[in-house]
Design brief:
Helix content: 40-55%
Radius of gyration: 14 Å
Number of helices: 6
Strand content: 5-15%
Order of helices and strands: HHEHEEHHH
CATH class: Alpha Beta
Number of strands: 3
Distance between the termini: 27 Å
Shape: globular
Largest sheet: 3 strands, mixed
Structural class: alpha+beta
CATH topology: Zincin-like
Strand order of the largest sheet: 1-3-2
Length: 122
């Protein structure tokens, strides 16, 4: 799939996620990369070749304070290679992008897996 088509699926997924998650994204950026960095994967998961679709990096929203102005935004990484490899059907890929975005936004918001289940993303 061309990068522009993948980016279009990301935009569509963002439009479909629940407003509570979308509204929380005031200081967060989404970065699409082809593959996760093996060193980062080893640091985060303990495995250099871990298969992940996304990753939140930054300070979770509940830990923010008024003294945080000027800090860089949090980042949500979406990893195109693993997503496309595991979900070759465009409709399934679009759904998994949405699930991955919500999951990473939930990490940013400080939510646990139970909250994701309530929204149907667990």
């Amino acid at each position: 799939m061309k990068r522009s088509a993948f980016d279009a699926l990301v935009r569509k997924a963002l439009a479909r996620i629940p407003a509570q998650f979308r509204d929380a994204m005031k200081n967060i950026e989404i970065v699409v990369e082809d593959w996760p960095d093996p060193d980062l994967m080893e640091e985060v998961t303990g495995e250099r070749d871990a298969v992940v679709y996304g990753l939140f990096s930054g300070k979770p929203l509940p830990l923010h304070s008024v003294g945080d102005w000027g800090e860089l935004p949090g980042l949500i990484y979406l990893y195109r290679g693993p997503l496309e490899g595991d979900f070759p059907d465009p409709e399934e890929l679009a759904r998994e992008i949405e699930i991955t975005l919500v999951h990473e936004i939930a990490h940013y918001m400080g939510f646990d897996e139970d909250i994701l289940e309530e929204y149907g993303y667990g």
